[in-house]
Design a protein that fits this description.
- The chain is built from 8 helices and 28 strands.
- By secondary structure, it is of the alpha+beta class.
- Strands 3-4-9-5-8-7 form a 6-stranded mixed β-barrel. Strands 13-16-26-17-24 form a 5-stranded mixed sheet. Strands 15-14-20-21 form a 4-stranded antiparallel sheet.
């Protein structure tokens, strides 16, 4: 008979030598969700995006509502959105939340929200409503807050609770526990938003989850990065593996070459860059004097100033400006391939023509017998904000699907890199780990430390996950020892 402790000791070197995940670096699978009527949802998407950044819809009047907060929001009923599973409470309850670099607050629908739609038929989805009474760590401040935006509003109370995402946890994270929404606001699968902007634009006046991780030294590097998958040119599907969000590092299997970092164009609030150049159908288009752009994963389209948008579509033969509810959008012959390239002061990045084509427009809208499709760049309208930090461009997933994007806190910058070979197509990337309609599991695929990301001389924060390697090793050892127990 083999003495079990001796077996455990003998196997210890092999357990410790096993491949370990990078401390403080977590790869989170992203889910992409699509709506069956992509074009019909475009007016609602434009309205919500304009309100998100404080823009006045074309030919309409803007008015503020008293005692409300103009909090950035994402319309999940656009042609697509990218979400991750976030756990809230003790014990944890899982929710599919949109990952949005264009906002900074965390909000989730609660079980007290009678107007929030549920989708009981979705057996693979995470919970859709947060039951606060089941969380022993939930603390409500009782302070009411209403969020207004183009396509509706949410109401609730500010609160604190334990929040976990991608293996990281923040206790007493501030959030909005939503108790009422405009009818049809939530699609019954998505439960809210996790904002990934800076604390300076937080309507809750709090530190966003990712920034709290950074401040607490839980990230190997002060950054997070995205690969967003493309499905726009495939048949409609409700959910699909949507890419990867890496917290605390980058994923070298998802890009090639070096990451080109561009310093933020303003004090950190939104992730702001300046649009440097633009070409359409290989013809240069002037970007004008208003070039400040928010890099926004929570937005599907690209929004540009009125004059620039008109110039863009003037380069596309047969294009027309749409009217009515679709005002601001342009249509073009579906047989035309629209090629757009952009630069933010460094390399020039090309947008796949598939991302510029949002789908066929009914003839009743286009007013022509030629089959017309909606374009991915639209006129955002006139800003009602003021100051140097108000973006006049919104760069959404129409562009971001074509690059590997990195959002760095210190020194503050956005980085872009060329996608790894094969990822520029619609194929799903092959990475370690699993993806599913409810990707609660965390991938530990190869991560790369960019090293120079703290070029300002500010030292990188230490990783709070230093004990993770030991934990994995001991788990492996315990599993092997258990096998020997059974054999004996």
């Amino acid at each position: 008979m083999i003495f079990l402790p001796l077996v455990a000791v003998a196997l210890l070197p092999f357990a410790l030598a096993a491949p370990q995940p990078d401390a403080g670096v977590i790869h989170v699978p992203i889910v992409r969700r699509s709506q069956t009527n992509r074009v019909a949802n475009l007016p609602k998407a434009m309205e919500a995006l304009r309100a998100k950044y404080g823009y006045q819809p074309i030919n309409t009047t803007y008015s503020k509502r008293a005692n409300t907060a103009a909090v950035p929001i994402t319309d999940e009923q656009n042609d697509s959105s990218y979400s991750g599973v976030v756990s809230i409470g003790t014990p944890p309850q899982d929710f599919d939340l949109i990952l949005d670099t264009g906002s900074s607050d965390l909000w989730v629908a609660t079980s007290s929200c009678s107007s929030c739609e549920t989708l009981s038929s979705c057996t693979s989805c995470a919970s859709t409503e947060f039951t606060t009474s089941k969380s022993s760590s939930f603390q409500s401040s009782g302070t009411p807050l209403q969020i207004n935006y183009g396509s509706g509003s949410v109401q609730g109370a500010t609160a604190q609770d334990t929040v976990s995402f991608g293996g990281f946890t923040i206790t007493q994270q501030e959030l909005l526990a939503v108790s009422a929404t405009t009818s049809g606001l939530l699609d019954g699968v998505l439960s809210g938003i996790m904002g990934l902007g800076f604390n300076t634009i937080s309507a809750l006046n709090t530190t966003p989850f990712w920034q709290a991780l950074y401040n607490a030294g839980q990230l190997s590097e002060p950054l997070f990065s995205f690969y967003l998958a493309r499905y726009i040119d495939q048949s409609i599907m409700n959910t699909a593996p949507g890419g990867t969000l890496t917290l605390g590092g980058t994923n070298s299997s998802l890009y090639q070459g070096s990451i080109e970092y561009l310093s933020l164009a303003n004090t950190p609030s939104y992730w702001l860059l300046n649009v440097n150049s633009l070409s359409v159908q290989d013809k240069t288009v002037s970007v004008g004097s208003s070039t400040l752009a928010a890099i926004d994963t929570g937005t599907t389209l690209i929004a540009a100033p009125t004059s620039v948008t008109a110039s863009v579509w003037a380069q596309v033969s047969g294009s027309i400006a749409l009217t009515g509810a679709y005002s601001g959008l342009y249509g073009f012959p579906c047989s035309t391939s629209v090629t757009v390239s952009m630069s933010f002061g460094g390399s020039t990045w090309t947008i796949d023509p598939a991302d510029m084509n949002l789908g066929s427009i009914p003839s009743s809208i286009s007013g022509t017998t030629t089959e017309m499709c909606a374009g991915g760049i639209f006129d955002i309208g006139t800003s009602v904000g003021s100051g140097s930090g108000v973006p006049t461009w919104i760069i959404g997933d129409t562009f971001l699907k074509n690059v590997y994007s990195v959002f760095r806190a210190n020194p503050a910058a956005v980085g872009f890199a060329q996608l790894a070979s094969g990822l520029s197509s619609t194929t799903t990337p092959i990475t370690t780990g699993t993806s599913s309609p409810n990707p609660a599991k965390v991938s530990t695929s190869t991560a790369t430390s960019t090293g120079s990301s703290s070029g300002s001389g500010v030292p990188l924060l230490g990783a709070a996950s230093a004990n993770a390697n030991i934990a994995v090793s001991l788990t492996l050892l315990a599993s092997v020892a258990a096998c020997f127990t059974i054999l004996l």
